[in-house]
Amino acid sequence: MDTTRYETVAAGSGAGIALVVIGGIIVVGVLIWAFRLGIKVMQRESRTPRHSEHPKLPDSGPVYETQQRREPDEVPDADETGRRLTPHELGASGSRRSEDQSRPRWEPGSSGSFGSGGPGGR
User: What is the pLDDT of residues 19-48, one digit of tens each?
Assistant: First the structure.
């Protein structure tokens, strides 16, 4: 029986164990360094506000959202102005409050399913 192979493996296992231990020590050292760095960064940040420093509700109470119908600002036609408008003449694409503030409702027999114009399942 040839034991040279076993002796080589046994001699190499000590070096392997040493590499694993050294690698583990390096990983633990990097984790400790990262933890300490995180603590230093947290100490440099501003503190969190106390409960008494939080914003308060206005005296009038909470503000609710409002709903309104909007309609787009019309762009003048080239026939009206005699020339085409350039982008900087258009300005912001705004809208204005609509005169009619009633909510649109579905009417029976209109639009059907997904705009097909059919009766919609009748």
Answer: 888 999 999 999 999 999 999 999 999 888
